[in-house]
Specification:
The complex is a heterodimer of chains A (471) and B (161). With 471 residues, chain A is an alpha/beta fold. Chain A has 16 helices and 19 strands. In chain A, strands 5-4-3-6-7 form a 5-stranded parallel β-sheet, covered by helices on one side. In chain A, helix 2 crosses helix 5 and helix 6 runs parallel beside helix 8. Chain A is globular and about 55 Å long. Chain A starts with a helix and ends in a 12-residue tail after the last helix. With 161 residues, chain B is α/β, with parallel strands linked by helices. Chain B is built from 7 helices and 7 strands. In chain B, strands 4-3-2-1-5-6-7 form a 7-stranded mixed β-sheet. The chains are: A alpha/beta (471), B alpha/beta (161). Chains A and B meet through helix 2, helix 3, helix 5 and helix 12 of A and helix 5 of B.
């Protein structure tokens, strides 16, 4: 029987495998950030261990860095300590660090691919659940907790029970691809399979709808695999993948011979078997807006806020969850999505803060102004994205429209740096989680694409971006 | 293991309500514990007692890979979470660090155990005894390897055969 791409990558990285036992898997790249690593380094010190492969370990700071002027000191003392701790740990253990002043600093899942550190067919781990992003390059990439971070630092390996392959086919062509984006595809998928639909699996995304996407759009898809319960999601590499990684700062010297190997080997065999399959047809999908408190609670921009009865389809637990979500979100069922007024707009995060995301959003706002009731910010995913955007004059489009143009970091995705919502503030956000309090205690998050967020910033409420002239 | 149940009758309890992002900078585990479940139940730290259990629905611990989530619960006194299902990273973190036991139960058990019930969990016989109601329920047995890691006291104490 043939093998799936995931199974081929798995087999190539098995160090120890035994019947009914987890396998020991070799890790090709370990990405490290300031929040989930300090206890792991403490553990190494306590046991007199060294980092097994510092040359395969790369660190940056992203989660708690302020996104305002980098020449100012960090006011939050606990953040400052966490950042200094990472600097010391990297120095002590010989790990390459892109620190707060490095031109390579940025969200770990944005800089990996940009620097050519993320490679097809490799295994990549990081103490962050959105590590699934790197799967867009045909890598097996997944998030781990701090105990596993310590294990990988010490041994460059990880014990894993083998997940099962889950095929998600995306068929058809989007109408108005500037308005209906990769974010709308992945939100539609999660709406259908549910937030635990992928538990215990590695998703392989395929089909015409995926092949048509750029690398940055594929990253948006793979990034949110975890919101569907799967620790990893991947896309078989193609010429777009190979072109993207060519001539990056850390692209391997023997790149062309690697590409030859990848072309031949990194595919799913025709007779391979998946444990399950889901197909999404995208010919007629609409821009998506989340209305609830998990990413599965999402609807079309043309819909109204559902009632808990409609959402739950007779499932009592689901109904209770929807009632609680509507109460938290302060929404009445039956309200058209386009009548929901917003206070804040956040364009950023490892889901949607790459150059292409910023270009697409800037097309919407060119020559216009943010609604006077809205505070809007753009946080580029990395200093490199920021610089490239500035060279193209995109920062000016945003700042002329009264958007704040900030320094790179995770920012308002997760409420652990100064960028947070106040209680009751409602935000159109390009991030990945609309959990209660995620963007700040009492904050109300609606997940949308960058173009949807940009249009909402101008109007002060959600609008169907298919009605805008974006060509 | 004997203790009382704190029941949250909902699915998808995520890591951001278990320990909100602003507390991920805290290194002191007891201080971290004082914010456990704050995103969902600000009174949690006043009602939780050493040895208590949490009972909840499907996909418990979904979201972030933050190990702070099982740590905060564990240092609040929680010895086990009983749920219809778990998100994988939370499950793994709970076991690897020997913070608490993630125990999968069925719908019937979920319905029959109430807030405040005193229960006894016996992982050698895979049984949950409800002392308050004098009932016995099954729990899903741990896989062989998970059982061994739990027995060893976490990933770093576990020595593969």
């Amino acid at each position: 029987m043939g093998k799936t791409l995931f199974e081929k990558i798995w087999d190539a990285h098995v160090v120890v495998e035994k019947e009914s036992s987890p396998s020991l898997i070799y890790v090709d790249r370990h990405l490290v950030h300031e929040v989930t690593s300090p206890q792991a380094f403490d553990g190494l010190r306590m046991n007199n261990r060294i980092v097994r492969r510092p040359d395969l370990t790369i660190a940056t700071m992203d989660h708690n860095v302020p996104t305002n002027d980098r020449s100012l000191p960090i006011l939050d003392q606990t953040s400052a300590i966490q950042i200094k701790t990472l600097e010391k740990n990297c120095k002590d253990f010989g790990i390459k660090l892109f620190d707060i002043n490095s031109p390579n600093q940025g969200i770990v899942h944005v800089i990996g691919p940009q620097l050519g550190i993320t490679l097809p067919g490799s295994t990549i781990v990081c103490g962050d659940s959105h590590t699934s992003t790197h799967g867009a390059f045909g890598a097996l990439a997944f998030g781990i907790g701090t105990s596993d971070v310590e294990h990988v630092l010490a041994s460059q390996t990880i014990w894993l029970e083998k997940p099962e392959p889950f095929e998600i086919r995306v068929e058809g062509k989007r109408k108005k691809p500037h308005a209906v984006t990769a974010k709308d595809i992945i939100l539609s998928i999660i709406k259908n399979i549910g937030t635990a639909g992928g538990t215990g699996t590695v998703i392989e995304y395929s089909g015409e709808g995926i092949a048509d996407l750029s690398m940055e759009q594929r990253m948006t898809i793979c990034n949110m695999s975890i919101e569907g319960g799967a620790r990893a999601g991947l896309v078989a590499p193609d010429e777009k993948t190979f072109d993207y990684l060519r001539n990056r700062q850390y692209t391997p010297k023997n790149y062309e011979s690697l590409v030859e190997y990848w072309r031949e080997h990194l595919t799913t065999d025709k007779d391979a078997k998946f444990r399950k399959t889901f197909t999404l047809h995208i010919d007629n999908i609409s821009p998506q807006v989340s209305w609830g408190t998990n990413p599965g609670m999402t609807c079309d921009v043309t819909d109204s806020v559902p009632s808990s009865e409609d959402y739950s389809n007779g499932d009592e637990n689901q109904k209770k969850a929807a009632d609680k979500a509507l109460e938290y979100m302060n929404l009445k069922s039956g309200t058209p999505i386009t009548e929901i007024k917003i206070d804040r707009v956040f364009i950023g995060s490892c889901t949607n803060a790459r150059l292409e995301d910023l270009i697409e959003a800037s097309r919407v706002i060119k020559g216009q102004k943010v609604s006077e009731n809205v505070r809007a910010m753009v946080v580029p995913g990395s200093q490199m994205v920021k610089k490239q955007a500035e060279e193209m004059g995109i920062d000016k489009i945003f700042t002329k429209a009264n958007f704040e143009w900030r320094e790179a970091g995770c920012s308002m995705c997760l409420g652990m740096n100064p960028d947070i919502l106040s209680p009751g503030e409602r935000c159109a956000s390009t991030s990945n989680r609309n959990f209660e309090g995620r963007q700040g205690t009492g904050g109300l998050t609606h997940l949308v694409s960058p173009v949807m967020a940009a249009a909402a910033a101008l109007e002060g409420h959600f609008v169907d971006v298919r009605n805008l002239d974006l060509n | 293991m004997k203790g009382n149940v704190i029941k949250y009758e909902r699915d998808n309890i995520d890591t951001d309500v278990i320990i909100p992002g602003q507390y991920l900078k805290i290194h002191d585990y007891n201080e971290l514990a004082s914010h456990a479940m704050e995103g969902l139940d600000p009174n949690f730290h006043t009602k939780v007692k050493e040895g208590d259990f949490i009972l909840s629905g499907k996909n418990f611990g979904c979201g972030s890979s933050r190990e702070h989530a099982p740590i905060a619960l564990s240092h609040s006194g929680i010895k086990a979470v009983l749920a219809l299902s778990f998100a994988r990273i939370f499950y793994r973190n709970a076991v690897d660090g020997a913070f608490l036991l993630p125990i999968e139960i069925d719908e019937n058990t979920y319905q029959r155990i109430s807030e405040g019930d005193e229960i006894n969990i016996d992982i050698s016989s895979n049984e949950i005894k409800n002392i308050t109601k004098n009932q016995t329920y099954p729990m899903k047995p741990f896989s062989e390897i998970i059982g061994k890691i739990i027995e060893a006291g976490g990933l770093f104490k576990y020595k593969p055969d």
